[in-house]
Please model this.
Amino acid sequence: MLEVSNLHVSYGQSEVVHGIDFTAKNEILAIMGRNGMGKTTLMKALMGLLPLKGSVKIDGVDVGKMASYQRVQHGMAYVPQGRMVFPNMSVTDNIRTGMEYVKSKKIPDEIYTLFPILKEMGKRKAGNLSGGQQQQLAIARALVNNPKVLILDEPTDGIQPSIIKDIARILKEIKRMRDICILVCEQVLSFTMDVCERVMVMEGGRIIYEDTRDKVDSQKIKALLAV
Model:
Protein backbone atom coordinates (compact mmCIF):
# COMPACT_ATOMS: atom_id res chain seq x y z
CA MET A 1 0.00 0.00 0.00
CA LEU A 2 2.74 2.46 0.98
CA GLU A 3 6.09 2.65 -0.81
CA VAL A 4 8.70 5.21 0.20
CA SER A 5 11.82 5.53 -1.98
CA ASN A 6 14.96 7.65 -1.51
CA LEU A 7 13.14 10.13 0.75
CA HIS A 8 15.03 13.28 1.71
CA VAL A 9 13.57 16.06 3.89
CA SER A 10 15.25 19.36 4.75
CA TYR A 11 14.66 22.44 6.83
CA GLY A 12 16.20 25.13 4.66
CA GLN A 13 19.76 24.06 3.89
CA SER A 14 19.80 21.46 6.69
CA GLU A 15 18.82 17.93 5.62
CA VAL A 16 17.10 15.99 8.42
CA VAL A 17 15.97 12.78 6.67
CA HIS A 18 18.60 11.15 4.46
CA GLY A 19 17.39 8.87 1.68
CA ILE A 20 14.97 6.58 3.53
CA ASP A 21 13.44 3.55 1.77
CA PHE A 22 10.70 1.27 3.09
CA THR A 23 7.44 -0.38 2.10
CA ALA A 24 4.41 -1.22 4.23
CA LYS A 25 1.36 -3.29 3.32
CA ASN A 26 -1.44 -4.70 5.48
CA GLU A 27 0.41 -4.26 8.75
CA ILE A 28 1.08 -2.07 11.76
CA LEU A 29 4.60 -0.73 11.36
CA ALA A 30 6.42 1.18 14.11
CA ILE A 31 9.12 3.76 13.49
CA MET A 32 11.01 4.30 16.73
CA GLY A 33 13.85 6.57 17.79
CA ARG A 34 14.93 9.14 20.30
CA ASN A 35 13.79 12.77 20.10
CA GLY A 36 15.48 14.68 17.32
CA MET A 37 16.18 11.62 15.15
CA GLY A 38 13.78 12.67 12.37
CA LYS A 39 10.65 10.63 13.12
CA THR A 40 8.14 13.50 13.25
CA THR A 41 9.84 15.17 10.28
CA LEU A 42 9.33 11.95 8.32
CA MET A 43 5.64 11.75 9.33
CA LYS A 44 5.00 15.37 8.35
CA ALA A 45 6.73 14.90 5.01
CA LEU A 46 4.68 11.80 4.22
CA MET A 47 1.51 13.79 4.93
CA GLY A 48 2.62 16.77 2.82
CA LEU A 49 3.24 19.19 5.67
CA LEU A 50 6.91 19.45 4.70
CA PRO A 51 8.43 19.37 1.18
CA LEU A 52 10.36 16.25 0.25
CA LYS A 53 12.61 14.80 -2.40
CA GLY A 54 12.01 11.24 -3.47
CA SER A 55 8.91 9.13 -3.98
CA VAL A 56 5.88 8.36 -1.79
CA LYS A 57 3.41 5.98 -3.42
CA ILE A 58 0.01 4.77 -2.27
CA ASP A 59 -1.17 1.77 -4.28
CA GLY A 60 1.31 2.70 -7.00
CA VAL A 61 0.27 6.38 -7.24
CA ASP A 62 3.05 8.83 -6.41
CA VAL A 63 1.60 11.41 -4.00
CA GLY A 64 4.95 12.94 -3.02
CA LYS A 65 4.36 16.20 -4.88
CA MET A 66 0.66 16.48 -4.00
CA ALA A 67 -0.85 18.85 -1.44
CA SER A 68 -1.99 17.36 1.87
CA TYR A 69 -5.67 17.39 0.95
CA GLN A 70 -4.89 15.51 -2.27
CA ARG A 71 -3.02 12.86 -0.29
CA VAL A 72 -6.12 12.51 1.90
CA GLN A 73 -8.18 11.96 -1.24
CA HIS A 74 -5.75 9.20 -2.28
CA GLY A 75 -6.15 7.39 1.03
CA MET A 76 -3.76 8.90 3.56
CA ALA A 77 -4.80 10.02 7.06
CA TYR A 78 -2.75 11.64 9.83
CA VAL A 79 -3.12 11.82 13.60
CA PRO A 80 -0.56 14.42 14.73
CA GLN A 81 1.35 14.48 17.98
CA GLY A 82 -0.77 16.32 20.55
CA ARG A 83 -4.04 15.22 18.83
CA MET A 84 -4.96 18.76 17.66
CA VAL A 85 -8.72 18.34 18.03
CA PHE A 86 -10.94 21.42 17.76
CA PRO A 87 -11.49 22.20 21.47
CA ASN A 88 -14.58 24.41 21.11
CA MET A 89 -16.42 22.04 18.78
CA SER A 90 -18.44 19.06 19.94
CA VAL A 91 -17.05 15.54 19.75
CA THR A 92 -19.52 14.69 16.98
CA ASP A 93 -18.62 17.76 14.94
CA ASN A 94 -14.91 16.99 15.34
CA ILE A 95 -15.48 13.56 13.83
CA ARG A 96 -17.45 15.07 10.95
CA THR A 97 -14.54 17.34 10.01
CA GLY A 98 -12.84 14.18 8.75
CA MET A 99 -15.68 13.38 6.36
CA GLU A 100 -15.14 16.03 3.70
CA TYR A 101 -14.29 13.46 1.03
CA VAL A 102 -16.88 10.87 2.06
CA LYS A 103 -20.22 10.74 0.22
CA SER A 104 -22.30 9.85 3.27
CA LYS A 105 -22.17 12.34 6.12
CA LYS A 106 -23.49 9.83 8.63
CA ILE A 107 -20.83 8.72 11.08
CA PRO A 108 -20.46 4.94 10.55
CA ASP A 109 -21.62 2.66 13.35
CA GLU A 110 -18.20 1.03 13.16
CA ILE A 111 -16.65 4.18 14.63
CA TYR A 112 -18.83 4.00 17.71
CA THR A 113 -18.15 0.26 18.01
CA LEU A 114 -14.46 1.06 18.19
CA PHE A 115 -14.91 4.17 20.33
CA PRO A 116 -18.10 3.85 22.42
CA ILE A 117 -16.99 6.71 24.69
CA LEU A 118 -17.28 9.12 21.76
CA LYS A 119 -20.95 8.29 21.32
CA GLU A 120 -21.60 8.89 25.02
CA MET A 121 -19.80 12.23 24.86
CA GLY A 122 -21.00 13.29 21.42
CA LYS A 123 -22.33 16.68 22.54
CA ARG A 124 -19.45 17.51 24.85
CA LYS A 125 -16.79 19.98 23.74
CA ALA A 126 -13.65 18.19 22.64
CA GLY A 127 -11.52 20.48 24.82
CA ASN A 128 -13.17 18.99 27.90
CA LEU A 129 -12.07 15.43 27.14
CA SER A 130 -9.08 13.75 28.77
CA GLY A 131 -5.89 13.25 26.76
CA GLY A 132 -6.75 9.60 26.10
CA GLN A 133 -10.28 10.47 24.99
CA GLN A 134 -8.93 13.17 22.68
CA GLN A 135 -6.54 10.61 21.17
CA GLN A 136 -9.47 8.30 20.48
CA LEU A 137 -11.32 11.23 18.91
CA ALA A 138 -8.36 12.10 16.69
CA ILE A 139 -8.08 8.50 15.48
CA ALA A 140 -11.85 8.33 14.84
CA ARG A 141 -11.69 11.58 12.86
CA ALA A 142 -8.93 10.09 10.69
CA LEU A 143 -10.75 6.80 10.16
CA VAL A 144 -14.04 8.20 8.85
CA ASN A 145 -12.34 9.01 5.56
CA ASN A 146 -11.69 5.26 5.05
CA PRO A 147 -7.90 5.65 4.64
CA LYS A 148 -5.59 3.10 3.11
CA VAL A 149 -2.68 4.46 5.17
CA LEU A 150 -3.13 5.75 8.73
CA ILE A 151 -0.19 7.67 10.22
CA LEU A 152 -0.01 8.21 13.98
CA ASP A 153 2.67 10.45 15.49
CA GLU A 154 3.44 9.59 19.14
CA PRO A 155 -0.05 8.23 19.99
CA THR A 156 0.97 7.45 23.60
CA ASP A 157 2.30 10.95 24.33
CA GLY A 158 0.82 12.32 27.56
CA ILE A 159 -1.53 9.36 28.08
CA GLN A 160 -1.73 7.27 31.25
CA PRO A 161 -0.67 3.59 31.02
CA SER A 162 -4.17 2.11 31.31
CA ILE A 163 -5.36 4.20 28.37
CA ILE A 164 -2.26 3.27 26.36
CA LYS A 165 -3.45 -0.33 26.58
CA ASP A 166 -6.85 0.77 25.24
CA ILE A 167 -5.20 2.56 22.30
CA ALA A 168 -3.19 -0.60 21.52
CA ARG A 169 -6.34 -2.73 21.62
CA ILE A 170 -8.18 -0.30 19.33
CA LEU A 171 -5.37 -0.22 16.76
CA LYS A 172 -5.28 -4.02 16.61
CA GLU A 173 -9.05 -4.07 16.19
CA ILE A 174 -8.85 -1.53 13.36
CA LYS A 175 -6.25 -3.71 11.64
CA ARG A 176 -8.52 -6.75 12.08
CA MET A 177 -11.57 -4.95 10.67
CA ARG A 178 -9.96 -3.11 7.77
CA ASP A 179 -7.56 -3.60 4.89
CA ILE A 180 -5.17 -0.90 6.09
CA CYS A 181 -1.55 0.05 6.67
CA ILE A 182 -0.97 1.71 10.06
CA LEU A 183 2.29 3.59 10.50
CA VAL A 184 3.09 4.46 14.13
CA CYS A 185 5.84 6.86 15.21
CA GLU A 186 6.61 5.89 18.80
CA GLN A 187 9.12 5.84 21.67
CA VAL A 188 7.38 3.47 24.13
CA LEU A 189 8.79 0.01 23.44
CA SER A 190 6.15 -1.90 25.45
CA PHE A 191 3.38 -0.33 23.35
CA THR A 192 5.28 -1.04 20.14
CA MET A 193 5.82 -4.69 21.02
CA ASP A 194 2.16 -5.07 21.92
CA VAL A 195 0.64 -3.58 18.79
CA CYS A 196 3.14 -3.56 15.90
CA GLU A 197 4.04 -6.37 13.51
CA ARG A 198 7.29 -4.79 12.33
CA VAL A 199 9.70 -2.33 13.93
CA MET A 200 12.17 0.14 12.42
CA VAL A 201 14.50 2.43 14.37
CA MET A 202 15.66 5.84 13.15
CA GLU A 203 18.86 7.56 14.14
CA GLY A 204 20.31 10.66 12.56
CA GLY A 205 17.61 10.71 9.89
CA ARG A 206 18.29 7.16 8.72
CA ILE A 207 16.80 3.72 9.33
CA ILE A 208 19.47 1.82 11.28
CA TYR A 209 17.49 -1.23 12.45
CA GLU A 210 14.51 -3.21 11.12
CA ASP A 211 12.91 -6.52 12.01
CA THR A 212 9.59 -8.28 12.51
CA ARG A 213 8.15 -8.31 16.03
CA ASP A 214 8.87 -12.00 16.61
CA LYS A 215 12.56 -11.46 15.79
CA VAL A 216 13.07 -8.05 17.40
CA ASP A 217 16.07 -7.69 19.70
CA SER A 218 14.35 -5.70 22.48
CA GLN A 219 17.60 -5.10 24.37
CA LYS A 220 19.23 -3.64 21.27
CA ILE A 221 16.28 -1.31 20.70
CA LYS A 222 16.33 -0.23 24.35
CA ALA A 223 20.01 0.61 23.96
CA LEU A 224 19.35 2.60 20.79
CA LEU A 225 16.54 4.54 22.44
CA ALA A 226 18.58 5.22 25.59
CA VAL A 227 21.81 6.50 24.01
The chain has one domain: 2-226. The CA atoms of residues 100 and 145 lie 8 Å apart. The chain has a mean pLDDT of 91.
